Amino acid sequence: MARPMVIAIDGPAGAGKSTVTRLLAQRLKLLFLDTGAMYRAATVGLFDAGINVDDPQAVAAWVCQRDIGFDAEGQVQLDGVVLPRARIRSPETTAQIWRVADNVGCRAHLVQLQKSLVAGRDAVVEGRDATTVICPDAQLKIFLDASPEERARRRLSEWPPHQAQPSLPEVVAQIRERDQRDSSRAVGALTLTDDAVHLYSDGLAMNEVIARITAYAVQRQPFLLENLVADQLIVGRSRQPGYVRVAVGDPAHTTAGWQLGLTNPTPERMPGSTRSMTRNLGGRQAGTVLQGQAILCLAGTAEDPGHVVALPMLPQTWYIIEPGAWHAVIQSHGTICAWAESSGIREEQRDLTNDQLSEMGAYTTVYLPH
Ligand code: C5P
Hints:
By secondary structure, the protein is of the alpha+beta class. It has helices spanning 17-28, 35-48, 56-63, 85-88, 91-96, 98-101, 104-118, 130-134, 148-157, 168-184, 206-220, 224-229, 354-367; strands spanning 6-10, 31-34, 68-70, 76-78, 81-82, 123-127, 140-145, 197-200, 244-248, 259-263, 274-276, 288-290, 309-312, 317-321, 326-331, 335-341, 344-345, 350-351. The chain contains 13 helices and 18 strands. The strands form 5 sheets. Strands 13, 14, 15, 16, 17 and 18 form a 6-stranded antiparallel sheet that branches. It has a 5-stranded parallel sheet with strand order 2-6-1-7-8, with helices on both faces. It is globular and about 55 Å long. The two termini are 37 Å apart. Bound molecules: cytidine-5'-monophosphate. Cytidine-5'-monophosphate (C5P) is lined by residues 13, 35-36, 39-40, 97, 101, 127-129, 178, 182, 188. Residues 13, 35-36, 39-40, 97, 101, 127-129, 178, 182, 188 line the site of cytidine-5'-monophosphate.
C-alpha cells in the first residue's frame, strides 16, 4: 500500500490554522483532523460531568474513558453526542483547556484516538503536536506562524459584534500567555521541528497561504493534483491516443512564439520520465507529471475559471490548471499568453484577476524561490 499523504500543521493559537487547514483539506480532498476540537470537547464534557477539575487524576480518569471523534460533517462528538461549535469554542472553554492539554494522562489518550483516526489515511492533521507526536512521519510538516500582533488584530476583527472588545495590547498579552503555555508543557509542547516548513502568514491573504501549502504538498506528492481537480474537471486522453495537450513557449518572447501543442506522456515515448495522470472520463484533456515536478494541462467543462493551480515546467513558464474550461500558459508578469478550449485550439490574451495573481505569486514563491 502506498504511504499515506499526511500534511501535519502546527502553530500557535490565532495563526489562522483552523480555517486554512479546513479549506486545504477540502481542496485536496483529504481527511481533516482538528485535534484542538478534541481537547475542547473533553474540556466541555469535564465541566458538564461535574468532575473535580482541580484533581488531575480525576480529570485523567474521566477523560481516558471518553470516546471523542467526529461525525460525517466534521462536528466533534463526545461519546457519540455532537457538541455545538459555539460551546467548544467559547472563551470560557478556551480558558480551561489547559486542564486537559497539560494533563499527561489525557494527552496520551487523545493522541491514541488521533492516531487511530488517521491511520492509513491521507489527511491534514492540525494542532500543536501534529508534527511531533501524532504524525512524526508526515510527508509534509508546516509550522504556520504569525506575529502576536497580527494574530491579535485578526482575533479582534472577528470579535462578536455585541460583546465588549478588549484592547489590542490586552489580546496580545493573552496570546503571548497561551503561546507560553503551549510551548512549555512537559509533553506535546508546540515545537518547530527541523523538517517543518516555517510559514509566516503576516501580510498573506488566506488564498496565498493555502496556495503555498498546496504547492509544498504537490511537490511532495504530485498525484494530489488529481484530488485537486477531480470535481471540476473532465480529464481524459486527447483524440490522438496517448497524447495530452500542453502549451509551450519561449520565455524570451513575451507574447509571440507561444503555441499550444501536444505531448506524449507515455513511458514508451519518454522512458522513465513520466507518470501518466490520464483519466479517460470524457475524452478531453489530460495531464501528466514530467520528471516528477512539472505539469501538464487539464481541461474541464465549466465556463468560468476558478482557483489557479500552477506548476512550473519551463523557466518563467507556468502551466495553470484552472478548474474550469480552460488551461493556460502564463508568464511571470501575469498575462495569459495563450489558452485553449479543450476541444479546439484558440489563442487569446487575457489578464489574470488580482486574486489569481496573488495565488500565482504564492506558488512561485515555493517553486522558484530565487
Ligand atoms: O487549536 P485550538 O485553538 O482549537 O486548540 C485549543 C487548545 O488545545 C490549544 O491552545 C492547546 O492548548 C490545546 N491543544 C493541544 N494539542 C493539540 C491541539 C490543541 O494541546 N494537538
